[in-house]
UniProtKB/TrEMBL annotation:
It catalyses: L-aspartate + L-glutamine + ATP + H2O = L-asparagine + L-glutamate + AMP + diphosphate + H(+). ATP binds at residues 362-363. Residues 2-211 form the Glutamine amidotransferase type-2 domain. GO terms for biological process: asparagine biosynthetic process. It comes from Candidatus Abzuiibacterium crystallinum. The gene is asnB. Belongs to the asparagine synthetase family. GO terms for molecular function: asparagine synthase (glutamine-hydrolyzing) activity; ATP binding. The active site is at residue 2. The keyword Aminoacyl-tRNA synthetase does not apply. This is asparagine synthase (glutamine-hydrolyzing). PROSITE patterns: GATASE_TYPE_2.
């Protein structure tokens, strides 16, 4: 695992070093640079040594030095690819470096190499013969990749903060990204929070012509629901078990110690059980617990201990009090690169694990594969759902009927019956285009379009933005007749990649811990998504098929337990321990100076919440987290971890 960086074009001495030095948390074991003056190219990296500790130094060149690479990630089938390449005559200098495998795979197949890779990765190869760069990001988006095109240069890095160290980069906020953030609590899609700095999308590669300064990107993989197979639940459970076991075995490949984050839920418990079956020694497990009010409701330590005892793991527990949960908030905001208002306790378990292992295995992705938290239920429970073969079918017909039907209802006498009838008619008539908004965005997310336009943002600059439409566009790209498939595809392209995987990467690498996610092995993902949706999950038992597949390794207590998880009581804390911070960061004068938000935000949201007259938890929290980010990255122009704390900011 590494932090990679590069500049192609006009630059000053030391710029690339400045970039990778800002990511030493990603790679504290080694650093390296490569320069090609005639192409004005500089590549750099900071390395966390996991595979081929002695031989994997980067940047790495091939034998004739016509290809050079910087690579962040792991290729789990590198050994198999290596054997194939050796049979074709390729010579290797290292004993088992997956970085060198990538170099030779590119020499052998060019961009077609990507189809063969099983892993998590973001890499860039300099091809001297073509005087061009070739880069790619893994299918699911486990590893990050940021880039910036300027007339005189092309810049890339594993983290946004590395790009922001350069004096040629202006720290201007991308208002549309910020607008979406206030609904989602994360920044979605290709654009980052900084204007002109982009993310390479998951499952995409790019080429950059160093002579012509032309950048092109192309998709090489996406979720596909077309090849769904009819097997019995018993047959599917066997295939799931075999493929997931293979994914776990691949992620145990390491030259350094590996541990498992164990929450006591089905996903992480299943991984530990599968690992215990195939490991030669005891599995290391790490669990995070909390003490405080209503501890019995959300504390998973007892369940985690059941799993640890079942498999005789080398088990480690860390218990935090509520007072400790916000001590590192400023450091978390810096580590995350972009504004984020979601769950943060992973910071503590990753920090805990990093004291004794360099690789941590997580259950991320299990929920997205099996049921998506039941987000599809509202669609299927709609009174119109049984009459539509596809969520988008008949949209034109319904939209055409909307105006005349509602006009006729307006002719009825004004009473409660007419109100109920009109509301039901609107639900039917809005089902096509409005289904996503009605059953997904509004109930699941945090600030509506109306709220943002009316009460959060200043009028100028946001009139054309629409988060619902942005999500609708992605939703419409999948033509499956199943709501379950469409929601899964939407979540894979948005929340999974842009929230959960971004958070997992930044919060683990902040502690120099490589996080691996077996459920997101692309072969396993493809298998699960080939299961007919009503077999893959049940409305009342979302993970029944996964439970069936893992029954031999799951204790009965785990199978029958309700899903838990610690949720920080933000609403209460904003009225108590976080009140001084909220008041300072949402002060009308401060908001007015930024020229982005309405100064009345304080009167509209903060004051009523603090007085207990309304609940605006997430509107305030999203503003507080953005303001912390703004203070660090815009006001203080941070290029390293901040020295101030939440306690100091709160006075």
């Amino acid at each position: 695992m590494c932090g990679i960086a590069g500049i192609a074009g006009r630059q000053k001495e030391g710029w690339v070093a400045r970039m990778y030095e800002s990511m030493r948390h990603r790679g504290p074991d080694d650093t390296g640079e490569f320069h090609h003056p005639s192409s004005q190219l500089a590549l750099g990296m900071s390395r966390l040594s996991v595979i081929d500790v002695k031989g994997g130094h980067q940047p790495m060149g091939n034998l004739d030095e016509t290809l050079w690479i910087v690579f962040n990630g792991e290729i789990y089938n590198a050994g198999e690819i290596r054997k194939r390449l050796m049979s074709k005559g390729f010579e290797f200098r290292t004993s088992h470096s997956d970085t060198e495998v990538l170099l030779h795979a590119y020499a052998d197949q060019g961009p077609q190499m990507l189809k063969e890779l099983n892993g998590m990765f973001a890499f860039v190869i300099f091809d001297k013969r073509k005087n061009a760069l070739f880069g790619a990001r893994d299918r699911i988006g486990i590893k990050p990749f940021y880039y910036l095109e300027q007339p005189e240069r092309f810049i890339f890095a594993s983290e946004l903060k590395a790009i922001l160290t350069l004096p040629c980069v202006e720290r201007e906020i991308d208002t549309e990204s910020l607008y979406h953030y206030f609904t989602l609590l994360y920044v979605p899609g290709e654009s980052s929070i900084i204007q002109k700095v982009k993310r390479l999308l998951p499952g995409h590669f790019f080429t950059y012509d160093l002579e012509e300064k032309q950048f092109q990107t192309q998709s090489y993989w996406s979720l596909d629901f077309k090849n769904q197979t009819q097997w019995t639940a018993e047959e599917w459970s066997g295939r799931i078990r075999d493929k997931l076991t293979q994914a776990v075995k691949r992620r145990l490949i390491s030259d350094v110690p590996v541990g498992f984050s164990l929450s006591g839920g089905i996903d992480s418990s299943g991984l530990v059980g599968l690992a215990a079956e195939v490991s030669t020694g005891p599995v290391k497990t790490y669990s995070l617990g909390f003490k405080g009010e209503r501890e019995e409701v959300w504390n998973e330590l007892p369940l985690a201990k059941v799993v640890a005892e079942r498999w005789s793991t080398e088990h480690h527990e860390l218990t935090l009090s509520s007072d400790e949960l916000l001590e590192d908030l400023v450091q978390m905001v810096y580590a995350l690169d972009e504004p984020y208002g979601g769950g943060l306790p992973s910071w503590y378990v990753f920090r805990f694990m990093s004291k004794t292992v360099k690789v941590g295995i997580s259950g991320t992705g299990g929920d997205e594969l099996f049921g998506n938290y039941g987000k599809f239920r509202r669609f299927e429970q709609s009174c119109l759902a049984p009459f539509m073969k596809s969520p988008l079918q008949s949209v034109g017909l319904l939209s055409g009927l909307r105006a005349p039907v509602l006009s006729m209802l307006d002719l009825l006498r004004e009473n409660r019956f007419r109100q109920r009838l009109k509301k039901k008619a609107e639900e039917w008539l809005d089902f096509g285009y409005g289904a996503l908004s009605r059953y997904y965005v509004t109930p699941l997310y945090y600030a509506t379009e109306e709220m943002k336009q009316r009460s959060i943002f200043q009028d100028k600059g946001v009139a054309g933005f629409n988060t619902r439409q942005a999500l609708q566009t992605i939703f419409d790209q999948n033509d499956s007749p199943s709501f379950r498939n469409q929601i899964a595809a939407l979540d894979f392209k948005t929340q999974l990649a842009d929230e959960f995987l971004l958070m997992t990467d930044r919060l683990s690498m902040a502690h120099s811990l490589e996080a691996r996610v077996p459920y997101l092995d692309h072969e396993f993902v493809e298998l699960v998504m080939s299961i007919p949706p009503h077999q893959r999950t049940q409305s009342t038992n979302l993970k029944y098929l996964l439970k069936k597949s893992l029954a031999h390794v799951l204790p009965t207590e785990i199978c029958g337990a309700h899903k838990r998880g610690f949720v920080i009581p933000i609403g209460l804390w904003l009225r108590t321990r976080l009140k001084p911070l909220a008041e300072r960061l949402t002060n009308p004068e401060r908001l007015g100076r930024q020229n982005i938000f309405q100064p009345a935000f304080y009167q509209q949201f903060v004051k009523p919440h603090l007085e207990g007259k309304a609940d605006y938890t997430w509107q305030i929290w999203s503003m507080v987290m953005f303001q912390l980010w703004h203070m660090i990255y815009i006001e203080n122009q941070a290029v390293g971890y901040p020295t101030f704390s939440v306690k100091e900011l709160s006075g």
